[in-house]
Amino acid sequence: MKAAVWYGEKDIRIEERELKALKDNEVTVRVAWAGICGSDLHEYQEGPVFVPTKEKDGLTGEIAPLIMGHEFAGVIEKVGPNVTKFKVGDRVAINPTITHGNKPEDVDAYDGFSFIGLHGDGGFTTFANAPENNVYLLPETMTLEDGALVEPTAVAVQAVKEGNLRFGDTVAIFGAGPIGLLTAIAAKAAGASKIIVLDLSETRLAKAKELGATHVINSGEVNGVEAIHAIVPDGVDVSFEVAGVAPTFKQAIDATKARGTMVIVSIFARPIEWNPIHLTNTGVKITSSIAYTPTSFQQTVDLMGTGQLKPQGIITDRIQLDDIVEKGFEALTNDKSQAKILVELSGAK
């Protein structure tokens, strides 16, 4: 089967691969649609970040070169003998997070985690295997294209929950890439009264406004923190750092009110220099979020199914697998008008 395989930085190849043998607790999914994530882009631009290259991953047992893709949905083609919750023909989305499963779900990932599509073969291909516990049935109200948006939307849902966002709260989101845009959508659904989005790209800010931001700020043209305080004098209740660079990390703290919360959502590919006295002087609390719990993933499916979460507006292009490097990774690197690019595999609805 044809697959997009990660070999190294700026080295993703379209080649033929064999599907690994199906384990007793797994299903085989015929992939319909798969999204390119910011984490995938990090691996392409400056990897390895997560991809195991020196020894096999402890949870997946796999090592590079690996088939990429962890945001995907499709139709079950085959089930292992121990699978009880699903059948051939079911339309499903995949939660790519693999953990040891020894702790309560809210702390389970911090005991060690891996991702299908980063630490082991994923969804940029025809067929993919996934454990039964990582498979989520899609309601009839959702298309398989919608299903490919569940994973990144769940990241935003979890981030909003980590920030303890309440009805009427004000938020600032630093970074209007796909996860920043989804965080704005999730914050709106959670009842935020002011949603302030900051970015350097006017195109991305226009998209943020379209998707529910009440205010947008081009932080390349004005002082972002001052602009936020002009809207919310004491600072926002919750800020989200979704850019992954030192300046926005510090600005997110400065934009947050005393005893408010800054949530780190982004993946920092490199260390930054920062003095923790920044918190001592401002009274801001910091927390972070990695992926989502199984409960948050299911809630995301449920909320998308009822239309209370509508992330479809972040899709900016649909491409074929053969074009994933030029029209996918390179486009996301060089064209800031791009947000979420979906790769069509079977293209089933």
From TrEMBL:
Taxonomic source organism: Viridibacillus arenosi FSL R5-213
Q: Which UniProt keywords apply?
A: Metal-binding, NAD, Oxidoreductase, Zinc
- Provide the family line: Belongs to the zinc-containing alcohol dehydrogenase family.
Coiled-coil blocks: none
- Transmembrane region positions? none
| Lineage: superkingdom | Bacteria
* GO BP annotations listed: butanediol biosynthetic process
Protein name, please?
Answer: Zinc-dependent dehydrogenase
| Cross-referenced Pfam families | ADH_N, ADH_zinc_N
Q: Which GO terms describe its molecular function?
A: (R,R)-butanediol dehydrogenase activity; zinc ion binding
Cofactors: Zn(2+)
- Note whether Nucleotidyltransferase occurs among the keywords: no
* Span of domain Enoyl reductase (ER): 8-343
4Fe-4S in keyword set: no
Q: Which SMART domains match?
A: PKS_ER
Task: Output the Gene Ontology cellular-component terms.
Answer: cytoplasm
